[in-house]
Amino acid sequence: KQNISFIVNENESILDAATRQGHNLPYGCRNGECGSCIAEIVSGSFFYNGANPEYLQQEVLGKRRALLCQARVSSDIEINANLLETETEITLKQLPCRVKSTEKLNDSVMRIILELPKTERLEFLPGQYVDFILPDGKKRSFSLANPPHENRVLEFHVRYYDGGIFSEFAFNELKNNALLRIEGPLGQFTLHNSERPIIMIAGGTGFAPIKSVVEHSLKINDPRSIHFYWGARSKSDLYLNKIASQWAKKYPHITYTPVLSEIDNLENWSGKTGYVHEAVLEDYSDLSDHDVYACGPPPMIDAIVSTFPEYHLREGSLFSDSFEFAKE
Length: 328
Known about the structure:
Elements: H1 14-20, E1 38-43, E2 46-48, H2 58-62, E3 65-67, E4 71-73, E5 78-80, E6 93-104, E7 109-115, E8 129-133, E9 139-143, E10 153-159, H3 165-172, E11 179-186, E12 198-203, H4 207-219, E13 226-232, H5 241-250, E14 254-260, E15 272-273, H6 276-283, E16 291-296, H7 298-307, E17 318-322
Parallel strand pairs: 12-13, 12-16, 13-14, 14-15, 16-17
Antiparallel strand pairs: 1-3, 1-5, 2-4, 6-7, 6-11, 7-10, 8-9, 8-11
């Protein structure tokens, strides 16, 4: 049991306020229909702004319980609710979803936006992934690129691989309104509490979970500085470069360093070149006061795991997600 306090702004739901300040309370649909966010009101006053929770049984209403996704406060209020501390406390779900849109971000990466049923939401931590369940029962894992507070739709970045069952299907056959089934959330890669500044490293579509984590950190006003390195072969492989550049432009505590490993002689590039982990070590000779978050292909993760401790990265300060390619 843990006592926490947080500020609820005028006309802000209790759930939105808790999420905004980094407290993970249970929820489902966020629109007052599923009842997953019901909590006991110990003291204080609340009201529903335009919501109509009449489907709740009178005994529930009589026990001073409220739908936190809809309830607004009209005084100081005390609630009794479960606080989700870790990813293991978030319910694993299988959900149907519909393809809302597909967009090729470059020749080899497609952004897929999925829409969940009206009464469902996927509760997850930033950086986690889901499994796409294929018709034959096989599963393919993809990281969520959207932050938890924007979960009416789900965003994924899918790289094309020759022989990749799902990626070939996504690039060649997947149409808007197609039905898919997902299972999640999964994975332990997420943002951890700390006072140390953060170095984030993405290789290729490892940008997807990094995007989720960064946008969550901005939502909760996390004060830690973030230096984000994105490693890619060529400029076109920095497929959402504008988003990362905008972070650095808009937020003083975020620095963005793209790193290209295969520069074409005709390519106009004045930034860093080489392997992305080496670019980090050129800038940071002592990592003892940093947390490192890394997502990308196994060779990149392996290089970070093997070299960063030599630069005094503390044990327990590296959080990584290795993107393995499953061909069959």
